[in-house]
Design brief:
The protein has helices at residues 5-10, 30-43, 60-72, 86-95, 111-125, 144-155, 170-182, 236-250, 256-271; strands spanning 13-18, 21-25, 52-57, 75-80, 98-101, 130-131, 160-165, 187-193, 230-234, 276-281, 308-309, 320-324. By secondary structure, the chain is of the alpha/beta class. The protein binds pyridoxal-5'-phosphate.
Length: 339
């Protein structure tokens, strides 16, 4: 029996979708990461019960941190983006977490850097607050060790390919790092939106998708580019097609980054039948009912979609591109230099 709902939600399920495709399904992915991070900070004396933990979040990290603070008796302050919806807002309030949302900007991609500016202001006003820095502090890798153990145990001994959207980079980076300790041939495929600096697609505009938890307009310390073998970039319509097909064909109701990862994983799995291809489904579909699932009639069939192979970032093009990243260093615009 679990001691707290953090443990329950922090434990994903593995679903065999057939054809070598496996869905790693989270109800809300960052609960595992935030809980382990907070536990580590308490154990090392970096924070104490009663302290205030603070971070910026577009949604699922806020929920994870609020649950972790609830469990360990800490206060939680979130600087949220405009994507924090009513369901989460109300839960945060009842859980005792405080939320401030940055005002909407014309271009949603700038929400991220605005939120960081606001965090810096808050730190000047409250030097005692602990900034979790989910995008930069590798403490956020720790919670995925148990997930990697679960994958290794349930899927052993097939060679694995892990596919997942890259936001902070913690989930895919940690899963590959921990799985490679046992199986160095584990492949890692990152999924990106267009318009993101992380893997250099910032010159290709697609402003709708950058707020869905993957991609970034600023460099992140937690993205270790040298872990990724392949990167795919998908536009909104392709991700929508993936989300709708994941529900229609496999009855898995998951979000937009999950749909993008599923579409990519299907494509990779068909070309590597000797491998198990595990894709990360980070959250459920509820947040995306109006923007994605209500548009199911216009969703393309996955069979009709495929990536353009590119060897140079200047050739990236919508709706879908794929590049052998080859564990290369970050592009200049994604180099993280702040402490
Ligand atoms: C819905 C969703 N999918 C994927 C990710 C990417 O996870 P990570 O930050 O571990 O790279 C996030 C991160 O916020 C997310 O919210």
């Amino acid at each position: 029996m679990d001691d707290h709902v953090c443990e329950t939600i922090g434990r994903p399920d593995l679903i065999d979708l057939g054809g070598g495709l496996v869905c790693l399904r989270f109800e809300s992915m960052k609960v595992a990461s935030a809980t382990a991070a907070v536990r580590h900070l308490l154990e090392t004396g970096a924070v104490e019960p009663g302290d205030t933990l603070m971070d910026s979040s577009s949604g699922i990290y806020a929920y994870g941190l609020a649950l972790a603070c609830h469990r360990y008796g800490l206060r939680c302050h979130i600087v949220g983006s405009t994507t924090v919806d009513e369901g989460l807002r109300v839960q945060l309030a009842v859980l005792g977490a405080t939320l401030e949302q940055v005002p909407p900007s014309d271009s949603l991609r700038f929400d991220q850097s605005r939120r960081v500016r606001r965090i810096r202001e808050l730190l000047r006003e409250h030097p005692d607050y602990h900034w979790m820095r989910q995008y930069h502090d590798s403490v956020h890798y720790l919670g995925y060790r148990a997930v990697a153990d679960q994958i290794a145990k349930e899927l052993d001994p097939a060679p694995l390919t892990v596919v997942g959207g890259v936001g902070s980079g913690a989930s895919t980076g940690a899963l590959a790092t921990y799985l490679r300790e046992r199986a160095p041939d584990t492949a890692l495929v990152g999924v990106q939106p267009f318009g993101s600096v992380t893997f250099g697609s910032d010159a290709v505009a697609d402003r709708d998708i950058i707020i869905a938890g993957i991609g970034s307009s600023i460099p992140f310390g937690n993205v270790d580019h040298t872990l990724y073998d392949v990167v795919h970039w998908l536009g909104f319509e392709a991700a929508l097609a993936g989300s709708v097909d994941l529900l229609r064909r496999h009855a898995v109701f998951a979000g937009l980054s999950s749909g993008a990862a599923y579409l990519v994983a299907r494509w990779e799995a068909e070309r590597s039948p000797e491998r198990r291809t595990v894709f990360v489904a980070a959250d459920t579909g509820h947040r995306y009912v109006d923007t994605v699932f209500a548009r199911h009639a216009e969703a393309a069939a996955p069979e009709d979609l495929g990536p353009a192979a590119v060897t140079d970032l200047s050739r990236l093009a919508r709706p879908w591109s794929r590049m052998e990243w080859g564990r290369a260093a970050p592009p200049p615009q994604a180099v993280h230099t702040e402490g």
